């Protein structure tokens, strides 16, 4: 394996871990309060789609 493939796979793994973290937030539903404002859950759903897509795309690129 060359360094390009290793870099793509490491980035893919990091995006995958971030996706798992956002999915965990969606299932556990913790209340996050920033200066009295309750942060909604919908940004985590968007993050799951975006991060999951990046994870799969980079993994696919590393295979080719």
What are the defining features of this structure?
64 residues, mainly alpha, 2 strands
Structural description of this entry:
The structure is a single chain. By secondary structure, this protein is mainly alpha-helical. It has one domain (3-63). The protein contains 2 helices and 2 strands; from the N terminus they run H-E-E-H. A hairpin with a 2-residue loop joins strand 1 (32-34) and strand 2 (37-39). Helix 1 packs antiparallel against helix 2.
Q: Supply Rg.
A: 15 Å
Mean model confidence by pLDDT? 95
- Topology, number of strands: 2
Describe the largest sheet.
2 strands, antiparallel
**What is the H/E order?**
HEEH
> Treating each run of at least 4 consecutive H or I residues as one helix, how many helices?
2
- How many domain units? 1
Task: State the end-to-end distance.
Answer: 12 Å
Q: Strand arrangement, largest sheet?
A: 1-2
Write a brief caption for the model.
The protein is mainly alpha-helical and 64 residues long. Helices cover 75% and strands 9% of the residues.
Give the topology.
Layout: H1 3-28, E1 32-34, E2 37-39, H2 42-63
Antiparallel strand pairs: 1-2
